[in-house]
Each structure stands twice: as C-alpha cells, then as structure tokens.
Amino acid sequence: MSQIYAEHPTTVPRELLIDRFAPRSDFALAGHRVVDADPETAYRAVRELDFTEVHGALVDASLLIRAIPERMRSRKRGPVRVPTRMTLDDLTAGSDWVVLGERPGEEITFGAVGRFWQPVVEWRPIEPRDFTDFAEPGFGKIVCSLSVLPYGTRRSLVTYEVRTILDDPLSWVGFRRYWRLVRPFVGAIQRATLRTIADTAEHGGPR
C-alpha cells in the first residue's frame, strides 16, 4: 500500500524590533486591531499618526490627571505649551523619547528612560545606541512598538505594545503600585490609538 506524505512548509518566526530593545519586560500590555486596509496603507497611517487626535473619555481624563503635577510645578513659569500636532517624529524631536529602530512598512519602536512612576516625571536623556545597555538603579525604561502584519488577503493586523523594564527592586516595587492604577488607562490609550490609526487607514482620517 502506498503512503502519501503531506509536506508542511517550515516558517521561521520573525523577530520583532521590540525584542531587541526589551528582550524581557517586568510589565507589559499589548493591544491589537484588524484594519480594513492593506499593510502598506496601514503602516502609512501609523507613521502619520497624530497623537493629539487620539481621544476618548478615559484617555482625556488620564492625560489631564497626569499633567496636573507638572502644571502645578510650572505655574510660575507661565502657561504650559500645548502642542497642536504630535507625530512620532515630533515626539522624538521635542522630548526625551527616542526612535529606537524601524523596519519600514512593518514596525517602529520608540522609548524613554526615566522615573515615570513619580508624580512629576524625571526623564533621562539617552541616545538610541545606549538604550539597551542602560541599567542605572532608580530609573526604568519604556519601550513601545507599533507594528503591522498582513491579515488575510486585503486587511492588516496592527499591534501597539508597551513594555517596561525596571533594573532594581525599589524601582520595581514603586512601579508595580503605579501600574495597578494606570494599567486601565494605558489600555484605553492603546485602544484609542489603534482606533485612530484604523480611521486614517480606512477613511483618510479620524471621524
């Protein structure tokens, strides 16, 4: 009796850029959305994302509350400048956030170093080349990734992932308390960001 063997193609898992800069994480959260657009269009919407257009009840409330300590500290310096546009390029050009790497058409990663669990955040300027090896006690690292994968023949899967790394026990404990409070808001921001990307990819802009 003859036997028939079915061949199954072997696929090699693709490395994510975020794995290079945060191969491990102490706290992480990922959100996903199926977008009715091809990967090229979806990724273009990622790169054109304007964070000032990301809104929602929880999103707006969390940003307002988070800004209160900084506003209180800056009262004597005059009104706080509110940006009218904030793309990824704007974010990294005017702050301590840095673009860590990009695989055009597929994924972009950006991150920052600081004490971001404190009422007034203390950021630590850093060059992308030094980010992975940075491990100074008292500071943590945030790594964010926006990635696009084909989903079927004409749609895309867009993922927004955030990973946090703490390199000493005291910082880990401090951030854990903070994370319990902010995790729902981080999830809301991820969902709102993905919704904005989807609206741009599918309809040309937020509705």
Keywords:
207 residues; Alpha-D-Glucose-1,6-Bisphosphate, Chain A, domain 4; 6 strands; 24% strand
What's the layout of helices and strands?
Blueprint: H1 17-21, E1 27-35, H2 39-47, H3 57-73, H4 88-93, E2 98-103, E3 107-115, E4 122-123, H5 128-131, E5 140-151, E6 155-166, H6 169-203
Antiparallel strand pairs: 1-6, 2-3, 3-4, 3-5, 5-6
Helix pairs in contact: 2-6
Short account of what is shown:
This protein is 37% helix and 24% strand. It has 207 residues and is α+β, with helices and mostly antiparallel strands. Strands 1, 2, 3, 4, 5 and 6 form a six-stranded antiparallel β-sheet that branches.
Overall description:
Helix 2 (39-47) crosses helix 6 (169-203). Strands 1, 2, 3, 4, 5 and 6 form a 6-stranded antiparallel β-sheet that branches. The protein is an alpha+beta fold. The protein has 6 helices and 6 strands, in the order αβαααβββαββα. It has a single domain (17-70, 84-203), classed as Alpha-D-Glucose-1,6-Bisphosphate, Chain A, domain 4.
